[in-house]
Design a protein that fits this description.
Layout: E1 4-9, H1 13-28, E2 32-34, E3 42-47, H2 52-68, E4 73-78, H3 79-83, H4 85-89, E5 96-98, H5 106-111, E6 120-122, E7 135-136, E8 144-147, E9 149-150, H6 161-165, E10 169-170, H7 173-185, E11 190-194, E12 205-206, E13 209-210, H8 215-222, E14 230-233, H9 243-251, E15 258-264, H10 268-274, H11 280-293, E16 298-305, H12 312-324, E17 329-334, H13 352-376, E18 381-386, E19 394-399, E20 404-408, E21 416-421
Length: about 425
């Protein structure tokens, strides 16, 4: 009888693509996939470690599995597993911890492991992780998340991602094109390009030879592939979002007018402490060009509040900067201390209650920005990809410029692009 497996993802879109790839691999090796809420023989949790919440959520999920399926095998992989394997191994109920180099060898590890053995850690020095493993989500969501880049060579003072993911490395354009063509055959309409530092695509070495490809080269190639109707670019650093990329998207029929550009702070003093590679003036310049070429374009922003050294004046500078920018929505993160990061040495530390209050203020601003952006487009007819299945008689989708539309469910709309009056 085939063993059953249930998978769960914590964190970013790239993690979703990897969990999906791991799930397909396990199915190909004879496992039967189950929902994570069901009883299964094996549970796989693909973790994030950007915030303390991700760590806590992992522990909570393991406790729940212990209650409902105490005999099940629990496998933890992902960023948290690479950064703190020994800590995870101490969580009651965890059987197997797979680091960055081992998550795609999961089937072999499961074959070699018996429930009841002591917790096994399969990890390595992150400096030794230099292979790129392709992955994409499919069937999990109507939009496919396609990983084209992994790792990061930046050393932002708050971030553990380089320690968890390793050096920047990419797929080749030829291999990405082949993967996209295979996805198109399955009837997928939209692909979201993902990476840890997406704009760094093409960087690194293959076979000892320096790569010469760029992210701009990649999107030009993808624009010509038949079958895929829409692409989105996930988070891209402002210093890597070139004028050429912006101008190309403005003229493309397939790349959607939607950017997500991390800012992190609207104070140059804080940006410097964070070791970011730009100043707020460059950020404003990028937003200005986007809005000049595509006034209807949606722009999402990542911002961190409560970073060490952030004064009342620094936060006000960030708030006012964001208030004055033509952006659409914010992803607001409350700074949390991470081991082995330079930010731990920066003083003074911002009190937790102050961090939380600043988070609340920016989330309120985000709501206002999104309302303003949506209201500006009321009455327009835009193309909507309806993607989610029937939810209590309703269906959801997004316009080209990322306005969420909820409508009465019609079966024929599923995974189809419809002209829709907002």
């Amino acid at each position: 009888m085939s063993k059953t497996v249930a998978l769960h993802t914590l964190g970013c879109k790239l993690n979703f693509s990897e969990t999906s790839a791991i799930g397909r691999q396990l199915e190909n090796d004879g496992f039967v996939k189950k929902d994570f809420t069901d009883i299964a023989d094996v549970y796989v949790i693909n973790t994030c470690s950007v915030t303390d919440n991700a760590d806590k959520e992992c522990r909570l999920l393991v406790r729940r599995i212990q209650k409902k399926a105490p005999e099940a095998m629990v496998v933890i992989t992902g960023c948290y597993a690479q950064l703190k394997p020994a800590e995870i191994a101490q969580i009651p109920g965890v059987d197997l911890v797979l680091g960055a180099a081992e998550k795609f060898n999961i089937t072999q590890h499961l074959k070699d492991f018996t429930k009841g053995d002591s917790t096994k850690i399969c990890s390595c020095d992150i400096e030794d992780v230099n292979e790129f493993t392709a992955s994409h989500s499919i069937n999990d969501r109507a939009r496919v998340f396609l990983k084209v880049q992994d790792g990061c060579d930046y050393n932002c003072s708050f971030c553990t991602i380089p320690l968890a993911r390793g050096k920047s490395r990419s797929n080749s354009i030829d291999k990405v094109v082949a993967e996209v063509e295979a996805i198109a055959i399955k009837g997928v309409k939209e692909i979201v390009l993902t990476g840890i530092n997406l704009g760094d695509f093409g960087k690194g070495f293959t076979g000892g030879k320096r790569n010469e490809e760029t992210f701009f080269d990649l999107i030009k190639e993808l624009d010509n592939i038949p079958g895929i109707e829409r692409y989105r670019i996930s988070s891209i650093e402002p210093n890597l979002l070139t004028n050429d990329i912006i101008e190309f998207v403005s003229n493309s029929k397939k790349f959607m007018p939607h950017f997500h550009i991390p800012l992190q702070s609207g104070s140059n003093k804080i940006l410097s402490l964070m070791r970011r590679r730009y100043k707020k003036e460059l950020y404003a310049e990028r937003v200005g060009l986007i809005k000049t070429l595509m006034p209807h374009c949606a722009i999402g922003v990542d911002v961190i509040v409560g970073f060490p050294g952030e004064t009342v004046a620094d936060f006000r500078e960030t708030f006012d900067f964001l208030h004055g920018l033509e952006i659409t929505y914010l992803h607001v993160f409350t700074y949390s201390e991470r081991d082995n990061t330079a930010a731990l040495e920066i003083k003074p530390v911002v009190p937790i209650h102050t961090r939380n209050e600043r988070n609340k203020q920016l989330r309120n601003l985000s709501y206002q920005k999104m309302q303003y952006f949506t209201n500006r487009h009321i009455g327009e007819t835009r193309k909507v990809l309806f993607e989610n299945p029937d939810k209590n008689g309703m269906v959801e989708g997004y316009t080209d410029n990322y306005i969420k539309i909820t409508a009465p469910h019609k079966k024929e709309w599923a995974n189809n692009i419809i002209e829709w009056k907002i």
